Amino acid sequence: MGSLDGRSAIVTGAGGGIGRATSVELARAGARLTIVDRDAATLTETAREVEATGAKVISHVADVSVSAEVAGYVRAAVTNFGRIDAFFNNAGIEGPVAPLAEYPEDGFDQVIAVNLKGVFLGLRHVLPVMIGQGAGAIVNTASMAAVIGLPGSAAYCAAKAGVTGLTRTAATEVARKGIRVNAVLPGVIATRMTRSLAQSFDPADPAAAWDSMAAAVPMGRFGTVAEIASVVRFLLSDEAGYVTGVGWQVDGGWINCEVPNA
User: Fold this and answer.
1) CA distances for 48 relative to 15, 27, 53, 67, 226, angstroms
2) Cα 122 to the chain's mean position, in Å?
3) 260 within domain boundaries
4) Is 103 an active-site residue?
5) CA angle, corner 57, sides to 54 and 60, nearest 5?
6) Within this chain, do residues 239 and 111 fall inside the same structural domain, yes or no?
7) How many domains does the chain have?
8) Catalytic residue among 73, 103, 156, 242
9) Which residue range is the domain that position 214 belongs to?
10) How far apart are CA 237 and CA 119, in angstroms?
11) What is the pLDDT of residues 25-61, one digit of tens each?
12) Do 194 and 76 sit in the same domain of this protein?
């Protein structure tokens, strides 16, 4: 299902969580990988897991908010694999948690730089390669926070809403050039980032915040990184050949469903 056999794929934010799980998923689907993260140590761990599948992989340390460094990982992928067929534009941070009226300006700037500008720069540098090829598939990481308001997360919500706008714009521009652009909108997923948010929401009792977040999901549980990775693999494959401009919700029903009565 969703074969990527022999295709060249880039994954940013590959050092852990959804990025690592998706790197391994794409490798198992046959892709040759360029994995990107600003943390060299976690990137090395991901490379080991990818190599265990038998896939070819190169690691590239980069800050996705810096245009020259984004150009560097794109150049590395093309140099090593000759082309870019699939791109998971995923890197992101959670940022501070604070009421909007008290939100730190430097924290807002940092979240926008990584979560929104980083996605823009990825598109800006990868799209010319794909346009030249006349083919390609891209998945950007947005969030359920692109659709609903999350108290204390103004920068994160603004950035992820922006990602959905970039996705639709890019999809419209390149649909007739053989390129598809979609977004995945994860809900609450069991990752380091979610645990960090639980700690921020209730420093005195992060376990209670964690349980409260899970209880708010109509399905009554957190999602797994594997559940996101499988959707990304599908969207990057030919099986999704008539899908573009879509924000694919993987949120246990959070956006569209009510929490069932206990």
Assistant:
1) 11, 12, 9, 28, 18
2) 12
3) no
4) no
5) 160
6) yes
7) 2
8) 156
9) 189-222
10) 20
11) 999 999 999 999 999 999 999 999 999 999 999 999 9
12) no
